[in-house]
Design a protein that fits this description.
This protein is an alpha/beta fold. Helix content is 38%, strand content 9%. A hairpin with a 2-residue loop joins strand 5 and strand 6. 38% of the residues are buried.
Length: 436
Amino acid sequence: MDDFMKGWQASRSKALKVPLDRRRFLRGLGFSLALPMLESFKDASLQAAGSSNPAKRLVCIGTYLGFHQADFFPRQTGKSYDMPYVLEPLTRFRDQFSIFSGLDHRGRHGHEGWKAWMSGSASGSVSMDQLVADHVGHHARYGSLQLTCGTPPDAARLSFTREGVALPMIGRPSVLFQTLFRSDSDRARMAYVLDGNGSVLDDVMEEAKAIQGQVSRRDQEKLDEYLTSLREVERRLQKQKDWLERPYPKTDYVLAPVDPVSPEQALECERVMYDLMALSLTTDSTRVLSFLVPGWSQVFEINGRRLSAGYHGLSHHGKEAAKIAEYNLVGREHVQRFSQFLEKVSSHQDAQGRSLLDSTLIVFGSGMGNSNTHDNSNLPTLISGGGFKHGHHWAYERSTRRPRLLGDLFITMMQQFGMEIDQFAGANQNLNDFLS
């Protein structure tokens, strides 16, 4: 009997180390109902990477021309690192973010490789933000929003569907503002458009079904794929109709009469977009945001000083100290605006009374490692919020037998949303131990 009890206690102890999956538990009883979060499950079913408070929102911010690595990554690891020059505007938040060096996807180099930042594939594969949107997007009016400033080059893409299609980005603050805060007349027009699209979709569905039995097996497979995509469109249309009955939020935010979307106004556009991103989170208009911070050949004026060359030219600095210094000035401006965004998010509470930053997981970085050589290794990476334990610089050796990949961090991030995922972008480990 003693041996039996010892064995039972050992197996019970081992089981307690594995987070209770609420959905598997329900299926095990023969149910398919989604129960509310129960207090009895709090310590187990919500456990993700050591946190009993998983993230509810995701924000992904990528800077197209990257950062000077030596001035982005700290020279020391652990908690007692000296804040690097480019990240100095974030000093007040140092206990609320974590820095990761040595991570990348081991993928393609060059601007084309930038597309792999959130997906791991430069040729097009589902991005991490869209997987999270599938998981939490139904809680808000917009499952996800993709943003930028102006019109980026084709190589600058962040978000991809499961079919590997790049999602379009909103590049004008006025369009984003109108999307978030529509008037009653806008709602009426939207209802008319949605009703019209719905009737067209019904006709197309009926026509496709009518010919399904008259074509070859291979064509039937293509039709099945087509009908599946139509059903997804139909589902999204229905969701928009459902949300259309609910009033849009109100705001006293005053938008400038003209969009700052010319290349020379990119830093101002960036600031406004961050303001609107914070509003979209505080009004719970969306649970998933991606924001591409563009990089052009514009010549910025910073602190009353006009830089000597265009931003893109400075990114190809050729290791010249003067160009690196100016490239870093632009990088600090990006970080300064990001810091102001963190300030806005952290000053609000979510519906549960938690800091909005604590329930919002934010990744800030770039798909470009070294812009001077178009090297997409050792990508600048920082995450904040999301209920994780922060304050460290974690450095990973790239030459080990089983190196950690950026996909490992993304796995941990997705698990923090309660997602059942253990492989992504060629990675099959995670970084849970480093954030718990």
